[in-house]
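Go through this chain.

——
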Amino acid sequence: MVAILSLVLNAIQIYSYLLIASILMSWLPNARESRIGQMLAKVTDPYLDIFRRIIPPLGMIDFSPIVAIFALNLASNGIIVLFNYFY
């Protein structure tokens, strides 16, 4: 059971890194149009779109990725708490 917990937490951590990479690529001109940028967009945009519908951008600043990463962090902490509660 610990192996499954470790796998899930590692997957959440890797997805957080992908979100950060996607955010950094949005700052560079034409980086999102590259193959890597398109692949990251396909992986991260469905999750980020949930938060973009809730939190509109303020001017040119989009706060939804920050909230999305925070939500992933809360989810991983919640999984740890549930695991410790049941095992």
Remarks:
- The chain has a mean pLDDT of 94.
